[in-house]
């Protein structure tokens, strides 16, 4: 699924660049439509992965996102899950990267497994592609299971 999403985004970016160089407004609109479709596919893939979790309970209050950084050509953010229960728990978390204006850039799903009762554990959310600017990571959905 990740390769399909990455391929769609690469195709969209390449098409946008190629069509953008032609100077044609129609071509630019078409490139924008392709990029929007690829972005929607990323969001849809993340939502589908969240829907695969069985017997999960809303745990957004247990999870927090730290500041973003760059790791190679990707944006990363530490995600911390704190388990308030009296048994170990696994977390599946959808993290959305947004630009300074709040526009959607990317979405990923992260698993943090085996968080001990009353303790915290951190994982790293890593963007599917290169993001420009200073994106912010936010928790879109978190399930404890």
TrEMBL record:
Residues 58-79, 115-145 are annotated as: Disordered. Residues 119-133 have a biased composition (Polar residues). This is Lipoprotein. It comes from Streptomyces venezuelae (strain ATCC 10712 / CBS 650.69 / DSM 40230 / JCM 4526 / NBRC 13096 / PD 04745).
């Amino acid at each position: 699924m990740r390769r399909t999403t990455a391929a769609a985004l690469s195709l969209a970016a390449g098409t946008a660049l190629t069509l953008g160089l032609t100077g044609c407004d129609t071509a630019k609109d078409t490139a924008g439509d392709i990029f929007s479709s690829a972005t929607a596919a990323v969001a849809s893939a993340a939502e589908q992965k969240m829907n695969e979790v069985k017997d999960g309970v809303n745990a957004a209050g247990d999870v927090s996102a730290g500041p973003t950084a760059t790791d190679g050509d990707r944006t990363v953010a530490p995600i911390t899950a704190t388990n308030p229960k009296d048994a170990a728990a696994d977390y599946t978390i959808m993290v959305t990267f947004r630009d300074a204006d709040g526009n959607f850039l990317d979405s990923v799903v992260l698993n943090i497994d085996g968080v001990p009762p009353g303790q915290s554990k951190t994982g790293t959310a890593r963007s599917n592609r290169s993001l420009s600017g200073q994106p912010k990571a936010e928790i879109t959905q978190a399930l404890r299971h």
